[in-house]
Amino acid sequence: MLQQTQVAKVIPFFERFLTSFPTPLALAAAAEDDVLAHWSGLGYYSRARNLMQAARIVVERYGGQLPCNLQALQSLPGLGRSTAAAILSIGYEQRAPILDGNVKRVLARLFAVRGWPGEGSVQRQLWARSDAITPDYAPRAFTQAVMDFGATLCTRTEPACHTCPLTSDCEALRQDAVADFPQSRPARSKPVRAARFLVVKNGEGELLLIRNDLRHGVWQGLWIFPQCRPEDNPPAFLKSTYGLDAEPIASVPAFRHTFSHYHLDIHPLILRAARRASTNCKLRLQWCGHRKPLPGGVPTPVQRLFGQFSAP
DNA sequence: AAGCCGGGGAC
DNA sequence: GTCCCAGGCTT
To answer: Which residue is nearest to nucleotide B7 (CA to C1')?
Structure first.
């Protein structure tokens, strides 16, 4: 959960998740929709699928207990070098250097490492520095400490250099250039895409959700509204794609949803389904509203519109 | 190496 | 608006 997600955001999700799935065994036996429901709103849903898969492997191959060596941990889906090392050091008290966002920032300043940390050569230098500063003693305390140092003192903006215990060692400070490290990512303009969300309401005030493609694109396997291109004819699209008869009743001002790699301008259109509307692919469709609540795994903009237009 | 994958906080 | 966050996977 903590991968690319701030601690404060994770905490409530983590509490609920562990109440429902306290062990690898519990997670391995859980229904995918149930797990995704707990993940809904966190983003990067592949982390949830990887976690489920990892739990199954841990149960089948390791008797339900996480392995205690770097290679075995890192081979589990969703665990890279840094996450595996964090588990090893904090969970098993073994020496294992990590390199998360905090540590990258601390090391970039301490040793004045030039370049954007996402770049391969910079990443290699930072891993070497992390390895060099990691002691043999107190692995758990050290890993926690170096992350907390970055999170509380050596922060991204306005680092507390005046109370820092490492001022005499900090190369960035010696150069009076703390703000120049780490170097930020080269700017890339995000392309803008547009889509029409078709919010179809039935006589009960329920809204039609479809299960999104599992193979490619964003929101894989999540429940979303039917979607067409802005230039498409919505009723014709619904008829040809789902065999559904519906007519527009209202349009909603467009709003923008931003992903890490593009902007999506969402143009919602509210439609009413014909009285005896039938659909031709029931497995991937579902009406949700006052009788049937939202299923697991609904992305944020869909949740927003659902809350706004699902009414008895 | 670069792109893909969410959502939100901080600015 | 932009940048980043207890990154990892795929191409």
So the answer is: A43
Any residues with CB less than 8 A from the CB of A305 and at least 6 apart, and which? A197, A199, A225, A252, A268
CA at A261, C1' at B3: how many angstroms apart? 9
Question: How many angstroms separate the CA atoms of A225 and A238, rounded?
Answer: 11
CATH architecture group of domain A97-188: Orthogonal Bundle (1.10)
Domain with CATH 1.10.1670.10 in chain A: 97-188
Mean pLDDT of successive 10-residue stretches along chain A, which has 312 residues = 96 97 97 95 96 98 97 97 97 97 97 95 96 97 97 95 96 96 89 94 93 88 93 95 94 91 93 74 81 86 91 68
Classify domain A192-309 by CATH number.
3.90.79.10
Q: Which nucleotide is nearest to A120 (CA to C1')?
A: B1
Q: In the complex, which nucleotide's C1' lies nearest to the CA atom of residue A299?
A: B6
| DSSP tag of A117 | T
The CA distance from A223 to A305, in Å, is 13
pTM exceeding 0.85: yes
Domain with CATH 3.90.79.10 in chain A: 192-309
> Which among A137, A127, A69, A58 has a CA at the least distance from the CA of A98?
A127
